[in-house]
Amino acid sequence: MTLGVIPPTGRVLGMDWGTSRIGVAISDETQLIASPLDTLTRRTGRRLPVGRFLTLVEREQPVGLLVGVPLDDDGLEGVAAIAAREMGRALAARSGLPLDWIDESFSTADALRHTREAGSPAASTARPARSIDAAAAAEVLQRWLDGRR
């Protein structure tokens, strides 16, 4: 489901859903390169961190929102995918941004691999999860950007 159409230029926010952390990435204005931006933390049983998300939207001025949908081992949408779609719809409604979806399969594994290959400290520190979540969001957003070209 796409709510509106994301324009071909301007920054796009990409999100990698997780039960406790949501990775956030941003593209450049030309929509060629995705970069890790932030990680939103969600406490168990709590609402989405909408306030922090809206602060990012205000600061970054994106033209669209991309949400990765986690598929199960059979390529089907399970509980996690339903939750990611609910999050995407809620954040798009609150921000007024057009919304698109993409399969986020293996984004965290790809982010870890790329981080290790680059020799980043995030791959070896005791607390890499926050930076890996944002890197996973960048992986998802980069796939989408590459698919648009």
Give a structural overview.
With 149 residues, the protein is of the alpha/beta class. It has one domain (12-148): YqgF/RNase H-like domain (Nucleotidyltransferase, domain 5, 2-Layer Sandwich), CATH 3.30.420. It contains four helices and five strands. The protein has helices at 50-60, 79-95, 107-117, 129-148, and strands spanning 12-16, 21-27, 34-41, 64-69, 99-103. Strands 3-2-1-4-5 form a five-stranded mixed β-sheet, with helices on both faces. Strand 4 (64-69), helix 2 (79-95) and strand 5 form a beta-alpha-beta unit. Helix 3 crosses helix 4. The longest helix is centred in the last third of the chain and has 20 residues, at 129-148. The two termini are 20 Å apart. Residues 123-127 have low confidence and may be disordered.
Low-confidence runs (pLDDT<50, min 5 residues)?
A: 123-127
Instruction: Give, in spatial order, the strands making up the sheet with the most strands.
Output: 3-2-1-4-5
What's the β-strand tally? 5
- In terms of DSSP E residues, the strand content is 15-25%
Distance between the termini: 20 Å
In the CATH scheme, the class would be: Alpha Beta
Number of domains: 1
Shape: globular
